[in-house]
Amino acid sequence: MRRPTPASCRLTTLAAAFLALQAASSMAQETGAPLEEIQVIGTTPGTGLGVAVNKVPFAVKTIQSTDLERSQSVDLVDYLNQNTPGVNINSAQNNPLQQDLLSRGFTASPLLGLPQGIAVYQNGARINEPLGDAVNWDLIPESAIAGVDMISGADPLFGLNTLGGALVLKMKDGFNFTGSQAEFSTGSWGRNIATLESGGNDGSLGYYVNISRFEEDGWRQLSSSEATNFYGAMSWRNENISALNLSYATGDSDLVGNGAAPTGLLALQRDAIFTAPDITENDMNMLDLDVSHYLTSNVQLVGNVFWRDNKTDSFNGDGSEYELCGYAGGAQSLFEEADDIEDALESQLGIELDELCEGGDPAITGFTELESFIESQALAAGLDPEDFELEDVVDDLSGTGILVDEAINNISQRRQTSEGLDGKVTIDSDLFGRENHFTAGFSYFRGESSFASVLELSRLDPVTRSTQGLGVGTFHDESATNVKTETETRSLFLVDTFSVNDNLTLIFGGRFNDTDVVLRDRSGVRPELNGDHNFSRFNPSLGMTYDVNDDLNVYASYSESNRVPTPIELACNEGVFSLAQEFAVAAGEDPDDIEFECRLPNAFLADPPLDDVVTKSVELGMRGMLSDINYQLGFFHADNQDDIIFQTTGRSTGLFANVDDTLRWGLESMVSGSMERLDWFASFSYTDATFEDNFLALSPNHPNADDEGSIQVSAGDRIPGIPESLLKLGGDFHVTDSLSLGAEAIYNSSQFLRGDESNDMDPVDGYAVVNLRANFSVGDRFSLYARVTNALDEDYENFGLLGEDPTEILENINPDPVFLGVGAPRAAWVGLRFKF
Questions:
Q1: Nearest partner of 566 among 596, 525, 600, judged by Cα
Q2: Which of 126, 125, 161 is nearest to 245 (CA)?
Q3: Which of 406, 708, 775, 789 would give a disulfide with 460, using CB separation of 3.0 to 4.6 Å?
Q4: Domain residue spans in the chain?
Q5: Residue 764 DSSP label
Q6: CATH topology of domain 53-319+409-835
Q7: Per residue in 685-722, pLDDT tens?
């Protein structure tokens, strides 16, 4: 049984406040206080801006539930990738529910360690997870979404992480969805998707329930996944004066994403995996309450409180980072791989470590004898023995004591609980005789995370290269982690929208954020992890819109936003080295033994503070209609100061570091319209994402890396993973009133490899994909549909990174360290939808 949480207390408090407001309103009416009729005008749904789109100085993309249904997309990310300007995906995990979403080069991803630059809200509740600001797309049932607003730019009104924009989700309730509907689809890769939803209201009370199920075998080997989500809402309305929505969501997923594969393996078999498994299991519960109430016809109070709990278990099988040494006497030792020492032994002393570790010298019967032999040879050669010191990790092992060097299992569990409260007042009242809309409010967010991980020695199945179920019960203690973190953010914000005249509108506002991040080591052996950090900043915003005529609206804005370093970034960054060395000296240990790396997501090291990232964004644009064609064209310029990037030190290990300056600028354009039976759209976007500073980046697998594993990055080098050009075309042709045929064509230009920040290597090639769909309706209740993805069966990749030599795991393939995220081959599904 779960204990009552602070969120439940806040729910009660807010409900009481709501009833008090209702009582006050009733008293006002009883005493004759007039309430004018409230007129509903077209606004951006869910944005919280409360004004018409032509008064918003940013690009806004609005998506309705009918758009999601028409596209037959797997999830929200799939839809955005197909239809939204400036959006692309990286298939780093190669799982359809674990895609990295990028908009204008800013990321919202389920993967820990990526720099998250998009804030995501569900019914006003922030759902970026507290440990790393990650977004779990598998826990958002697309079929339960009523509408989405994708708001561009660094608008501070949406809080932390709004560097490239905000994604605002409005979920269905009994007032925006009525009736019942069942849907089922099946097809390629054993993928089955089923949804059942029902909603309705009696004018005052409403209900909505949605249950959805996703399962598939996956198109790659050993890649089956499943996800089940439930979303329910109870709603109350009092004419146009008051509203209350209480919603509950729960999600349970078991996702396998076996990631990128080396080019040598892909040349032989494109559905092959390199090592396995990579399993992520989410178990989430969320409770949300939002209320609104008009005190008068022009003064509205809006409040939201939520509680969210997500438990994530991960199991990742990987190639071993250790070498097994078997001595002549039968003893064994385990060493961390140290190619530089092995090379030095061979080149300077003529010692082949592999031969000694295969019992090649009968006098070497254990690790002590091996150390003595190397020391004697070094002294005889007039060299310092410490230059050839091997790190013995046998004493750091626990469990069965069985030694293997084939593979490792990275096993972790993280528990993330977040809760939030926000409220605002909006006042629509003339100022100086002109229309004015004023909003002011506050928000509070608190997130707790516990993170525990172990590294288990394992064996590798020679056929599947999988470690699942093959662990030997021996653990490397130094890699174990047990950390607790807490993030607390308090914010005040305001925005004023003033109509200078019937055409010109000025918008100004800002947000003050004050954030505390606390980290505590729960193991008792890593005091360098303990830290308390505070980040405070005021982010201003200024904009204008101008209606040139009824068919042309232009806008311009300047805004700032920031994101604070996440707990995982604070616990694993460049400042770790000196602090960890200080603790080693104080403990009487050799500071040179301190490792300068962090395993993601399986270990932390220390927490000297990083600076928070500040984005200063300028946006100019126009939108309107021309001869029945809707169009929008915008220019953006986003300068990131003290950006945070992850620098790899090999395999999944690495560290975070501030980069003085990065820049993302470009343009977005889109046109759409209808021509007799054809509905169509076309969009083109260009994003130039570059480093604007010279610095050394860690990338030891790069062919140009120096002896320290560093590469030189120069100002103007492109940021990996972000294509410059995106082109999207699509439409639906209504053959009859019952039959429609649709298609999308998506083109992404090339992108550089993660790990090649210096842009020295060939980029990942650009690609084009065509998707087809059809829908046939039988009356108003029954419809059949079909979808074909990658209809031309193109071989393509949408992600790449540098890894270690793949021949360490799989012999007789190309040793090229380039790993690619492979696009799925042609596939088809059919489905039916029934309303009752």
A1: 600
A2: 125
A3: 406
A4: 53-319+409-835, 322-403
A5: B
A6: Maltoporin; Chain A (2.40.170)
A7: 999 999 999 999 989 899 999 988 899 999 999 999 99
